[in-house]
Amino acid sequence: MPYEWIKSEDPDARSTPVAEVHLWPYRSLLRRDFVTFMAATAAMVLLPLIAVMGSPVLWGLLPFFALAVGGIWYALQRNQKDGEILEELRIWPDHISLDHHHPRRGHLTWEANPYWVQVKLDPKHEKIPNYLTLKGSDREVELGAFLSEDERAALHEEVTTSLKLALEAAAR
Predict the structure, then answer these.
(1) CA distance 172 to 166
(2) Could you tell me if 112 and 137 are in contact, meaning their C-beta atoms sit under 8 angstroms apart?
(3) CATH 2.30.29 fits 3-26+85-171, yes or no
(4) d(Cα 17, Cα 9) in Å, to the nearest integer?
(5) DSSP calls for 17-81
(6) Ramachandran bin of 54, using left for φ above 0, alpha for ψ from -120 to 50, beta for the remaining angles
(7) What average pLDDT does the chain have?
């Protein structure tokens, strides 16, 4: 799953969160595979140009082939950059914070009191199945928008459990 729970080494310390989860989008194309894919694509696209090598037709077709390879390169680079999104949810007994790091939109932060936070999963949302949100401090924020339907459902259970543990730790 494209998220990881960070276990606290000292759960009684006030400075360390009771629970912490890092979420990121799934990456199907790794950096080293990008080079291989682009080389194979360029080879396949340029293969038909061998037939027109040495003729003026080559110069008429070459810009279109360059545009196709350049477009694929741009799309994959943009996808790679968008995959650098990171969400960090931290839960303490007295507050909860969500940090959203986006490479193009910047850094967004949300904080609330865990006692008043509601973890909501909307299975029949009009656009996104299993829409997962946190509501608190008069604001509702989305959690794990890039996760799959099943991953958001599993994360809902885990966040709810972690929130209950934090509230139990606050009661002690």
Answers:
(1) 10
(2) yes
(3) yes
(4) 10
(5) -SEEEEE----SS-HHHHHHHHHHHHHHHHGGGGGGTTSTHHHHHHHHHHHHHHHHHHHHHHHHH
(6) left
(7) 90
Q: How confident is the model at residue 169 (pLDDT cuts 50, 70, 90)?
A: confident
Give the span between the Cα atoms of 39 and 76, in whole angstroms.
Answer: 13
Q: Tell me how far the alpha carbon of residue 44 is from its chain's centroid.
A: 32
Domain definitions of the chain by residue range: 3-26+85-171, 31-82
pTM of the model: 0.79
Q: Report d(CA 101, CA 112) in Å as an integer.
A: 18
Q: Give the pair of three-digit tokens for residue 107.
A: 């850094």
By residue count, the chain amounts to: 172
